[in-house]
Amino acid sequence: METESEPYVRLATLRQLHQVVADLNTARSLADTLQTVADGIVAGLNYELACVNLVRPDGDLVVAAFAGSPAAEALITGRVGSRESWERRLSMGVAWGDLRFIPHTEGWVLIEDDVPQWHTEGPAPRFEDEWHPHDRLYAPMYASGSKRELLGVISVDRPRNGRHPGPWGQEALQMYASQSAIAISNARLRANMQRALVRLEREQQALRASEESFRQAFEYAPSGMAIAEMGGDQHGRLLRTNDALCRLLSRPASVMRRYSFADLVHPEDIGTLLRTSAEGGRAELRLGRRDGTYVWVSLRNSVVADTADGPRFLLTHVEDIEERKRHELQLAHRASHDALTGLPNSAELRSRLSARICERPHAIPETDYDAPYGHDHNFGFGAGPGAGGPYDHHVHSVAPAAGEVDDGTKGLAVLFCDLDGFKSINDRFGHHTGDAVLIEVARRLTTGVRDGDTVARLGGDEFVVLADGLGAADAADLAVRLRNAIIPPIRVDGRAVRVGASFGIGWAECGMTVEEVLNSADQRMYIEKRSRAKIHRRAG
Least CB-packed of 76, 116, 409, 436 within 10 Å? Predict the structure, then answer.
């Protein structure tokens, strides 16, 4: 069962992974890109050692970059392993998607082959998924396209937690290898483009040959390329696009010449485009396809001159990153949502609740609210009433007055829900039935709230509902409706089971911590459950 700390660890790892993937495209050369790939494994994926083996033109693989051990780096960097030996390794062991894991029980036969390797001695594993020093894990890197040409292999060693990576870790490593292959391909492409640009500047006598070289690199580039005007009334207009960009956006070249990137970008990303500099600027944004959908791309700009004294043009490299963005969203969703019910998990609930409450004191002098626009205070010196105090532009959350009379105040209600009788269902019918009950309760709670309200699973059979803009009577009515929605029988495998629900209503108020808010609602739920139990005993 997932511990409460694991979502936080996943979120932290996801942020590191996002950063190292972004760093892949910042390297200036192929050598820098290869070293960035190796460093990213150590910095973002929690392995102590990483080696990048690059396929040479003759087919053999050379150790091109190493990270995590200066001694190992000095020993094996530049050494070559035969393609035959590498193909043998990639056909052994266990396939984890594109990854290949060779346990130490099989890998001993590889100790004497010609593939450069580094390992230390160590004890036998104490438990099933403990990492052994002779375990081997490889992540092949393939070029984009149907032929899946092998570009190289990343080998990793010594996971920092000492265990074999689980499904989430395997997927993260595979996604990183895929993005590394793109970065290496792009680094090679940029090197070819830079050489072509140098020839355009230095080889005036061979101008036609240079133009043809540039044309081929532009037209046949695997990623999208575009040339746009710089300056003048037509600044930004697309003059030329290659086939890859036309296919990506499903628009013919003749139509593309009617637009600039500003005409194609998603409205929410126009600011990002405008902030992207012409020389060396890069951005991630969405471009519109012909059918009205959008695709995530990475833009990278450079400026080229037509001749030594001629006009300058903007050369833009457009890379499709839709798959990477989708993986990022999937990983982020897994880290912030409950695997069983699909609801926001405890970490996500606390994050949403924390965003709504600030740490201002419970009581603020009335004079601090004398500004003409409510809470629109500032930190300026001599800025009027309350200047210099702990104010901001945050709209403070307040709670309705305690008691049975509704004073008209609207606040953020926190409904703590605990299922009654759920343990007996688990004990009598098993966890499969219990899981089905939790899934159905989650569905009924979600159906019973408004759009914009949050239903989260805190853990076990505990749920929390965040509903903003409610008064005391509104919150009580909502609790009754949700309880009534849960009570009807739930059919699982032809059997009808019932659970009850106890609700405690708390209020999120600025000046409270997240834990104080949740504990307040939990205590009210506990009081209600005891009160209902007394009523049942009397009735019995």
Answer: 409
